[in-house]
What does this fold into?
Amino acid sequence: MQYRDKHKHTPGMTTDIYNSETYHSLCGKKVKLDGRTLQHQYFLGPHDIALGLSTDGFAPFKRHKNTAWPLIIFNYTLPSEICFHINNILPLGVIPGPIKPLDANSFLWLVVQEFFRLGVGVQAFDILSSKLFTLCAHLIIAFSNIPAMSMIMHMKGHNGFSPCRMCEIVGLCIPNSRATTHYVPLNHAGHPQVQAGDVETYDPEHLPLQMHSAFLARAYEVQIAPSNAKAVRLAKKYGIKGVPILSYLPSLTFPVSFPYDFMHLIWENLVKNLVLHWTGSFKGLDDGDKSYSVPKAIWEAIGAATAAAGSSIPSAYGS
Ligand SMILES: [Zn+2]
It folds into this structure.
């Protein structure tokens, strides 16, 4: 439990969550809770604990999809080699299914209450120094797959008009289709919905990023909308359904404390789609037309070589 305190930060080098900007922006700041500024600072004490929240829809029964969402905590105060090991994970509870909860905030409120208590500090005993101390713990990150992330950030989700938690890019409907989902091309020019004065193209290097205060101002605007119809309209426009309860924890910044998670984004989604692309079977898009298709014989040789390599890859790399 001393890993965080002993971690040395080399500017410009990222080896750990303790090199992140969000963590550094908290260090030295006084802890604020429920509008009150407390006397102690974030992560000043050697015992202070940094935690991460994660959830993921899973199907406990064969025939259903995404029927429950376990809420789990990772303890970054443990060495990074072991902090994700199953016996170091703190399970908080499960949001039951079978459909997404109407009000995920009502489940997360229990989590927020505990973090209020841990932000103030609780008495604990340090066996190494035989002393009592005030144990403080702060949530510094939350991550999950995109649908569960929309749930805990109180957002409409990736099929909506404002689909992105990181930027303010807006989606378009598929022309002449009744589909309710949107897609998000960078170039909007030529789409029948686009009117003069609308943003026509987005520069991928300079997307209009979501910012903490603007995000929460919009969330509040939706929350206090004078009528249900207005709330629905605003929620669609902003992609935000109301004030996320996690925003009451000032150790979190929207949206940067809610990053995309590598496992879902890359391993479970991008790699899958790339394989479909390389084998010429991705949603009928340029199938077999362009040079990125890998010929069948080569693809099979890569597969055979990969399978054969399994027995000589050190097990420390895992699957
Ligand atoms: Zn975006």
Remarks:
- The chain has eight helices and ten strands.
- The chain has a mean pLDDT of 90.
- Residues 1-149+244-260 form one domain.
- Helices lie at 3-6, 21-26, 104-120, 146-153, 212-223, 228-238, 262-278, 296-309.
